[in-house]
Amino acid sequence: VQGELTRRGMERERVATQDALAFAMEVIAAFRIVASFVWESTANERYNAKIDASKKSRRTALIMQGLGAGLVMFFVFS
Questions:
Q1: Quick one: which of 41, 42, 49 has its CA closest to 20?
Q2: Which pLDDT does position 28 carry in this prediction?
Q3: Using one digit for the tens of pLDDT, what is the confidence trace for 47-72?
């Protein structure tokens, strides 16, 4: 169960990171358009939101992994 929860969390984190990377690549590829319409701050805010989603998914996966390992050790030593 712990492994499955961790795997799902890591998968969500991977997808969120890929989404942020794809967005960053789109902004870089269209830099002239972004700059000409003064969308730098908007692009920055959207990128930060995508990175925050990635961090949240990663944090959740690591918490699940830590809790699972802690519970396993508790039962082993109990």
A1: 49
A2: 92
A3: 999 999 999 989 988 898 899 899 98
| Structure tokens belonging to residue 60 | 């959740």
Spell out a b/e string for 7-22, using b for 16 or more CB atoms within 10 Å of the CB, else e. eebbebbeebbeebee
Contact assessment for residue 2 and residue 63, using Cβ atoms and an 8 Å cutoff: no
Compute the distance between CA of residue 60 and CA of residue 43 in angstroms, rounded to an integer.
26
Identify the CA nearest to 44 among candidates 67, 27, 66: 27
Q: How far apart are CA 33 and CA 29, in angstroms?
A: 9
**With contact defined as beta carbons under 8 Å apart, do 65 and 21 qualify?**
no
Close Cβ partners of 2 (under 8 Å, ≥ 6 residues apart)? 64, 65, 67, 68, 69, 71, 72
